[in-house]
Design goal:
This protein is an alpha/beta fold and 592 residues long. It has helices spanning 6-17, 19-31, 36-73, 76-123, 128-135, 143-183, 199-218, 222-245, 247-252, 256-294, 298-308, 314-331, 333-336, 338-360, 426-433, 466-471, 481-490, 506-509, 512-526, 542-554, 567-573, and strands spanning 187-189, 192-194, 372-376, 381-389, 400-403, 407-410, 415-420, 440-447, 452-455, 464-465, 503-504, 530-534, 559-563, 576-583. The strands form 3 sheets. Strands 3, 4, 5, 6, 7, 8, 9, 12, 13 and 14 form a 10-stranded mixed β-sheet that branches. A hairpin with a 2-residue loop joins strand 1 and strand 2. Helix 6 packs across helix 14 (338-360).
Length: 592
């Protein structure tokens, strides 16, 4: 049997290896997001505020020269005037800083909303989540990618984008100022004097380049280490969630010590990845902090020859040093944010690979060697040469199972029971009919326009009010309280009729019989024309089994397809029997 297409695996691998493809997926997701225009509006407002802030910062830099010259000349009136000028400039910059902080937060909020909604919508679209969980490790514990990775990617994208734009504007604004200032510097060596055009600009570029290259060298493993940490954190969260969801079974088996050991082992792997990341960040701090402290004195050292030569004033020296600091700060943005950029790339990798994996799930519908599902226009369910693969990979030596009767037709109103040989996985047949298991061959023609309700052996009971649970996934407002209580009474749950507004973890409050009875109450409320069951009567108390089977016997106008073995169902409905048989090692088909 064929499994996940090789092309799908190659597509995921290519996304993992290509930053360009990761960015393409992210940009496509953003451009088709419902909140795109909101984000663009906030981004435009941020551009205006950042440009205004840059202009104010340039004015503040020019303010340095007259202020320090007034100090040097002990000119009190000029000194007081420059203090008033400072108050106006700094006040305006303060307002702009506050506005920018608010815009930053709102942009990050909307970025997270758009990204998280997109990933969740893609995950829960067209049975992708189930298929991914069956075919890829990415689908085993996706909560880390859906929640934490999406949050980090949205927030860091906003922060880094704003920081990069801000640094670019400052660079453009001050590189001209610094070039003009340093062009006036005259250096003297004995009787020989000379100028170096843009002297301090070249100094800032060389200083920032050295810091960037060294940071790149020291921190080159940070992206990989961050991705590894996120993966281990996801494993730990999954272990904790799994233990929490199975507390009763663990307590009954006295398995607390074993679970504790497993969780501690997972925690050890998390701590190990954090230790590796901490060491890498520590090494990077030597570079970033070292260059940061040196930046206090470096601009003055670079400009000092011109100052001691007497070609610039003290105010000019301080103005040049301030302009150098702004240019260097803009140039070293990459250095300051190298760790965050590595973290962002790790989050981008995990989110885009997950989204690419979800996109490839649709390829199984059209890949040769998979089961074809289409519609039957005459309202008859047809199974043509259907063969179900027992694995998602071709490495199963042809192991499969099929219907003994090669072509099966189930007409509206018929009651049919499907059982099988020992070892036949009937659940895969149920999942194939539901469109969840595409691995195999043959055709399934479902009745066009008919609602088919699939009822698994273990009913899903969502958290919430009992009335919502009874109607799930249909809105409970479609049914009156009388309808809900009547359905409960018919399935033997009359005592729950007074608890319709109660919100609880019902899967923990109700036993297996009560949970299955709720599933049957849902059927009675929704009145579907077609119902496919998977072993729903297996393991129930005889009284419950008889009551629910009797209800099925009364559904004479509903087509019932029961997958499993149930004497009670066969007796109550007079069901026709269809048999599943095993096929091993590509054995030849029996004649029809």
């Amino acid at each position: 049997m064929s499994g996940k297409p090789a092309s799908a695996e190659q597509a995921i691998a290519s996304v993992e290896a290509s930053f360009r493809k990761q960015m393409a997926i992210a940009l496509h997701s953003f451009w088709h997001s419902a909140i795109r225009n909101r984000i663009l509006a906030f981004a435009l407002a941020l551009v205006v505020v950042i440009l205004a802030t840059a202009y104010g910062t340039v004015l503040l830099n020019h303010w340095n020269a007259p202020f320090y010259n007034a100090l040097e000349q002990r000119n009190l009136p000029a000194f007081l005037q420059e203090l008033r000028n400072f108050a106006v400039i700094a006040g305006a910059l303060l307002v702009l800083n506050v506005v920018q902080a608010w815009l930053n937060q709102m942009t990050a909020l909307h970025m997270r909303e758009g990204l998280t909604r997109d990933v969740i919508d893609q995950w829960l679209a067209g049975r992708r989540a189930f298929r991914l969980s069956m075919t890829s490790p990415l689908g085993v514990n996706p909560d880390q990618r859906l929640h934490e990775d999406a949050r980090k990617l949205a927030e860091m994208t906003t922060s880094l984008s704003i920081g990069l734009f801000n640094a670019t504007i400052l660079l453009v604004s001050f590189i001209g100022v610094l070039w003009g200032l340093s062009s006036d510097f005259v250096f003297k060596l004995g009787d020989w004097s000379f100028r170096i055009p843009g002297y301090m600009v070249w100094g800032a570029i060389l200083y920032a380049l050295a810091a960037s290259l060294l940071s790149r060298l020291v921190g080159r493993r940070l992206s990989t280490l961050n991705a590894e940490r996120y993966a281990r954190e996801a494993d730990l969260r999954f272990s904790l969630m799994r233990a929490n969801e199975n507390l009763e079974a663990i307590a009954v088996a006295r398995g607390e010590d074993t679970e504790k050991r497993h969780i501690h082992q997972t925690l050890d792997s998390v701590l190990g990845s954090i230790r590796n990341l901490a060491l890498a960040l520590t090494n990077l701090t030597w570079v970033t902090a070292g260059f940061g402290w040196l930046a206090i004195i470096v601009p003055i050292l670079i400009a000092s020859p011109a100052y001691f030569a007497g070609t610039i004033t003290f105010g000019g020296l301080m103005m040049a040093a301030a302009a150098f600091t702004q240019v260097y700060s803009a140039l070293r943005w990459y250095v300051d944010n190298f760790g965050q950029i590595a973290d962002w790339r790790a989050a981008l990798l995990r989110v885009t690979v997950f989204r690419a994996a979800l996109d490839t799930m649709d390829q199984t519908d059209t890949t040769s060697g998979n089961i074809e599902i289409s519609m039957s226009e005459d309202g008859v369910l047809r199974l043509k040469a259907l063969e179900i693969g027992v694995a998602t990979s071709a490495e199963n030596n042809g192991s499969a199972f099929r219907l003994a009767e090669r072509d099966v037709e189930i007409a509206p109103g018929e009651h049919v029971m499907v059982n099988g040989d020992q070892g036949v996985n009937r659940k895969l047949f149920f999942n194939a009919l539901a469109g969840l298991w595409p691995f195999g061959k043959g055709r399934i023609l479902l009745p066009a326009g008919a609602e088919i309700l699939f009822v698994p052996q273990i009913a899903y009971l969502p958290e919430g009010k009992l009335r919502s649970l009874l109607a799930y996934p249909v809105p409970s407002a479609k049914f009156t309280d009388e309808d809900l209580r009547s359905a409960l009474e018919r399935v033997g749950l009359r005592h729950l009729g007074t608890r319709l507004e109660e919100r609880a973890r019902w899967e923990r409050l109700l036993d297996k019989d009560e949970q299955m009875a709720l599933a049957f109450a849902n059927i009675l409320l929704r009145k579907p024309r077609w119902v496919v069951f998977f072993d729903v009567l297996e393991g129930l108390e005889p009284e419950t089994e008889a009551r629910l089977a009797a209800l099925l016997g009364e559904m004479t106008e509903t087509t019932l397809l029961y997958i499993g073995r149930s004497a009670a169902f066969a007796k109550a409905t007079g069901a026709r029997l269809v048999h599943l048989e095993r096929v091993m090692n590509n054995a030849p088909e029996k004649p029809a």
